[in-house]
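Homework help thread (please don't just give me the answer)

Our assignment gives two proteins as sequence + structure token strings and asks us to describe the second one. The first is just a warm-up. Here they are:
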Amino acid sequence: MLPADRRNRVEYIVEPAQIAGATNGELVAAELLPARRYGPPRVKILERLGSPDAPGAISLISIAQFEIPHVFSTAVLAEADAAGPADSSGRADLRDLDLVTIDGADARDFDDAVWAETDPDARNPGGWHLVVAIADVAHYVAPGGALDREARERGNSVYFPDRVVPMLPEALSNGLCSLKPQEDRACLAAHLWIDRDGRKLRHAFERAIMRSAARLTYEQVQAAQDGAPTLPIPKTRLDALYGAFAALDRARAARGALALDLVEYRVVLDTKGLPVGIEPRRRLDSHRLIEEFMILANVAAAEELETRRRPSLYRVHDAPDRERLDALRLALADIDIPGLSLAKGQVIRPELFNRVLAKVAGRPEAALVNDLVLRAQAQAIYSPDNIGHFGLALRRYAHFTSPIRRYADLLVHRALLGEGMPRDALGTVGKHVSVTERRAVAAERAALERYRARLLGDRIGEAFPARVSGVQRFGLFLALPDSGAEGLLPIGNLPPDFYHFDARRLRLSGRHSRRGFGLGDTLSVRLAEADPLGGRLVFRLDEAVAERPRSSTLRRRKRPARRVGRPR
């Protein structure tokens, strides 16, 4: 038996008693058996996943590869099925508000709804009153129950192009906790008051009953704002949402939050669930509107918990460390754009990176520089110790708005309701859900790479423009601009030469040809291999243009060559 990831070159033995009825060419999930003294490693087949070409096979590979829990126990399902609608007694009634959900067209759960109006308080001219209503998951998932234990273990939902592996069973995630239009739902609502410049004046939280006026998509909302036919809500409501957003956007700019411009991609599936294309997701003001409303609610949650002295999990993001900053400085110094630098000795704030990003906005180098700045950042995590959020330029921040799909948000809800977890247990939970979040991101990314490899599988030998996105001693990592696909150009597929690897400048330089390959270079390459199971693409330099002088955005700088492996 061969592993799906062909970079793992180990061949495994499946003995007849462990084959579980699987046939040749079938995808299976297996576990390693205890090693014998001699012979290749043995495995036991746990699950048959079907044909590798079948719809859904790619996400199943990622689920198995990253060991994502995806089957609910009988006890968990029974607890979810036993839940019923929340009683409205003791809850504020928000059913007269035209609260709406705004999500992607392919969204599978709806856990947040928004509403806004001009603040009627004469002491706040030009200000706004916002409501962010979040599904009251804490009402249905009690601490210590089967649902709670399962949600904690999963940590979060995982999203693939053809399915979602939910944190909670569908009876809750797509049922009682999904804010479906024209259906009464229990919620935890944040009332937020801001001034004309988007600065929060005060907030209040309450348990409530709401009824979504409409399930809207980002595209619908943006089209209506741009003058398309009206939505199933009054135009005044849409105007109020965008008015409040404009104020929040001014506040974001004033505090200098990191303004990365990164492209996200979506897989287009046909009616059978097979991939037919990959395209960039459009970035609309309607996306940013929801983001700013959610950020404001998250800030209010963190401040409320701090005021009440209730321990919970903060969403924290540290400033970049010195090593990453030094690497970024070297890379920026090699890009041939005047003024594109990050000087030493400055206090590191997000606006320093924003100045760099502004220098390349609209230029061919923009994607490269945004990627470099992203790589320089620390990773956001969950922690009971608040150190602030560097990227958002916020002193206090907690995830409150997605308790259907993030366990950390559920803990914040409980803390706000006085049902929080002891502080000494929060550190362990924070580390766990940070790990499950990284696992989900890795699984989603691996699935996307497999979809890309499958779509490119019939284009072997075709030429593509590519940008060098990474450099290692063994070759170049390439990114294709149209689909975002990434692959490897091994050093053996470069023109024959002895190549020096400069680890500081991320560059391969030919000793005899004096030709160099560095981060950001644009190359013409041909696809040599496409492995859909492993999500792996291999390229070779296009021989038709291999001898042409390169046109790079990187300057040649007179520095002594570094030998591969030489200590620095």
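The one we have to describe:
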Amino acid sequence: MNNDNFPSKFWFILAFIGLFMAAAFSQSYKIVDTGQTKFYNNFSEISSPAAGAAFYGQDAQFTCQQPSYTDNGDGTITDNVTGLMWQKSADTDSNGEINFADKLTYSEALAGAASCRLAGHYDWRLPTIKELYSLIMFYGEDPSGYTGTSTDNLIPFINPDYFDIDYGDTDAGERIIDAQFATSTRYISTTMGGNETMFGVNFVDGRIKGYPCGSTPIDPEGKGFYVLYVRGNTAYGVNDFVNNNNGTITDRATGLMWTQADNGEAVLWQDALAYPQQKNAENYLGHNDWRLPNVKELQSIVDYTRAPAVTNSPAIDPLFNCSMITDEGGGTNYPFYWSGTTHANMQNGGSAAYVAFGEGLGWMEMPPNSRSYNLQDVHGAGCQRSDPKTGDPADYPYGHGPQGDVIRIYNYVRLVRTIDAAKDVGQFENAHPQQFELSQNYPNPFNPTTRIQFTLPTVSQVSLNIYDLHGQEVISLVGGQLNAGTHAVEWQAQNQASGIYFYTLQSDAFSETKRMVLLK
């Protein structure tokens, strides 16, 4: 061995590993930090808690991708973290004021993107909910309950040094918090008893909610929204999940690793913060750096193509396991999940942000002032709201707020950690299976939806077909070329009769059949 060449070879190998990991974890979906720097207990601001102390492990104790913007001086703002370019101002009519006249209906917001020529660019688009949520900052304070009319001392949930937005137009009869921004993300189900719904972000009260995107009795011409158009990085918000086959899921787009299962029970916020500390002491799933996700990390794994009423599943990729709950109306549903992010109000820090992977339920008084309440999906699976950190849910029999948002106080937990390229390279390699494998469907028996998972060792031309007891093909779930790795698909059998069915995974080098039972 020539020792003179060793250093150069050594650094070449390290460089190669670095390039490999950069490709493996491209981070096309970088999550911008929430901006929360204050610490809170159940009610108010506190000093930074020490490891092992109560309330340790909250948002402000972890530093993620810090916000970085460039004002291009032409009415656009570049987000240096996400690679997205934004319209700077919500002043749609360009008269120097932002008010009710600048709001667009959903159809107008979609059409306006195609005709936008800001700064000479022709590729502006209405942002998705994940793109728009990248701008939210949780140093904002929710003014809900504020009875004043001045907005001078209010702190929005977006950086006002770069973006020109405003509050609801009180001169037009709006509330201060009526500052909802439109996105292109439609809810695949409906809300409020049948409204076609869009997910929007409110940078005044710091929430994602579902809003009607068509005519309603209140807004016959359609509700109006503020708009910020976006361009660039069309991969932003697109997950790239890998099942590591060890109880963890890696998202190569964000560089985050998640626990495949949740904690299995509803807990208070303080107990949610303590949970990762307990699991780290156990070196849970081979790691001791788990944490409670901040709310932007948690929202990143929402799958907005899913909803309980349509897909009979939570709004998350089926690679994840999600506890089922009985909701306030006695129906089957899925939980709200705590984040480590306090949702501060002007008065206190007594609430924490959560993301709903089941329906965003609320008790609607119907008809108004009748004292007769109807539980409905009012904000959609994938909404982000907040719950009191402690208290008794029984004190809120018909929820809280104008839509009667259900108040649970006890919510579920899913842990996250940041990928360490050097430490986790072996784990990433193990994520690629060495052989074909067809797993037993889950649940089994099922009614009416079940998930089928399989793994491929190489890029393969495969088919996954369902057959009845007589050998007749019922449906083809997969047919084509897939990459190596773990894949999962769902079969929705609501139109099929109860009985025994078979599913077969087949490629040039592999064929296997398993049995399942549909029991209605």
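TA reply:
I won't write it for you, but here's a hint about the kind of observation we're looking for: Helices lie at 6-24, 106-115, 129-133, 269-281, 295-299, 308-311, 421-430.
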